[in-house]
Amino acid sequence: MTYCVAMRVDEGLVFLSDTRTNAGVDHVSAARKMAVFEQPGDRVLVLLAAGNLALTQAVMQLLSEPAPEDKLTLYNAPSMADAARLVGEAVREVHRRDAATLAEFSVDFNCSFILGGQIRGANTRLFMIYSAGNFVEASLVSPYFQIGESKYGKPIIDRVITPSTPLDEVAKCALVSMDSTLRSNLSVGLPLDLLVYEKDSLQVTRFSTLDHDNQYFQMIHRTWGERLRQIFGEIPNPTWADPANVPLRARETVSSVPRVVHGDALTQPDTSAPPFQTLMQPDTGRSQQ
Amino acid sequence: MTYCVAMRVDEGLVFLSDTRTNAGVDHVSAARKMAVFEQPGDRVLVLLAAGNLALTQAVMQLLSEPAPEDKLTLYNAPSMADAARLVGEAVREVHRRDAATLAEFSVDFNCSFILGGQIRGANTRLFMIYSAGNFVEASLVSPYFQIGESKYGKPIIDRVITPSTPLDEVAKCALVSMDSTLRSNLSVGLPLDLLVYEKDSLQVTRFSTLDHDNQYFQMIHRTWGERLRQIFGEIPNPTWADPANVPLRARETVSSVPRVVHGDALTQPDTSAPPFQTLMQPDTGRSQQ
């Protein structure tokens, strides 16, 4: 598995990828899932990859092969959209070559990519390319893409990232998101590749490989867990009361424990059942007592 | 989709389920996914269901049908393990009846259950039953089960629940976990059924159906998001420095931006590339400058 995330905000782009690969739990290794196509002063394109490693490396190989001057490559594509199309075409080329054979071995054609960057004279852009070679672009309402094991790390991104979030805060968010993923999925692992692209710099200005020794990531890992437990502890526990003491509006939906009455799978209110307590509603003054 | 979670701690059991069902985004409805088999003074068994609603209701129907006195049911099973076996047998019965026909329509035989509760004279127990009818039991090291859309809500449970967590705090954790899931997956929806079982009570003592009006859940929803953003803001942003100013240990893994050199897909250090900054490591005294 893999976790890669890229976010696009007003100040630039942030890319973060793990490096774990596995073919079963006893065949764990590491590979970099980030590739940087850079022409300082002209363009920085960053490609993140998830899926079958043989497939993603085959796509990467195609994208980096020498080409005649007149052929489009990631180094001369006039726009980010053209670059995304090139990645999609490379995926389709690998599909033509490998998919049938893989199917004989019941191996899915499984790969996906995030491509982001900036080409001189244009804005930063961010794309996600699917295994069918088609692609979508990130927008202001959803300024990020994830590939691989995305769910554990999604809630924090949804809560904190907006287009105006400062770039370093976006990097921090990516690392918190990665920390949640690392904690819950063994197939995502250190070291991490973090690239922070400052808009209009047109070269790589901030990059770091974070391993177990990295003190900033250690600090995030430790602090985030501690503070989560702290704020969890500060939220009041529920309190319980007899339904009769609960405000009317709440009581309406309160009384039906979904008891199964023998012989009738449709659960129904059972007035002969013993009394129980229900969640106390804080008194806000608008409820009737 | 569905999200159901059940946790077993020293003080008892907590069950929480959503009620959304859907067959495509334009066919959204609600069904209760919790069923309570209660004989006050003798047993409380709670069953949570996820998967194809027709299948889970068929299983529920089998489990609630009248049976001859000498036949095992959830109402007379001598142990929770026997009860789990009964649920598994019901799943297999529905599989025998429906699976072949469903396969003709390319519908997966997809259902899973959580069964928890207590029978007089024994401890509380908690099981997860798979669509093959086999089952596993929760243990002290992993005192909870989730079915349905489980990933968004898993990190908070992993961080705060231990066997000694007080029951009301477990209920609060289940609701926070549900809140994260509701925020990220549209196919999980209110109202929620929350049942808190106090060990040795042998009857339902605390139950609540939480809908949009429920002020406790509203408070969790609002407070949790606010406090998350607050602690996120309090964690320091990364700071960046020239690699030459970064302590030696960090520098070792710092210098290799995974640049793709044209014609060579294997990324390699490019000493001619422009300089970039890397994550500053806080000085802990053990690094060499």
From TrEMBL, chains A, B:
One GO term describing the cellular component: proteasome core complex
Protein's GO biological process: proteolysis involved in protein catabolic process
SUPFAM superfamilies tied to this protein: N-terminal nucleophile aminohydrolases (Ntn hydrolases)
CDD domains: proteasome_beta_bacterial
Name of the molecule in the record: Proteasome-type protease
Gene3D superfamilies the record matches: Glutamine Phosphoribosylpyrophosphate, subunit 1, domain 1
Transmembrane segments: none
Region annotation (Disordered) ranges: 264-289
Organism per entry: Caballeronia sordidicola (Burkholderia sordidicola)
Family matches, as InterPro entries: Ntn_hydrolases_N, Proteasome_sua/b, UCP009120_prtse
Residue ranges, compositional bias (Polar residues): 268-289
Organismal lineage: Bacteria, Pseudomonadati, Pseudomonadota, Betaproteobacteria, Burkholderiales
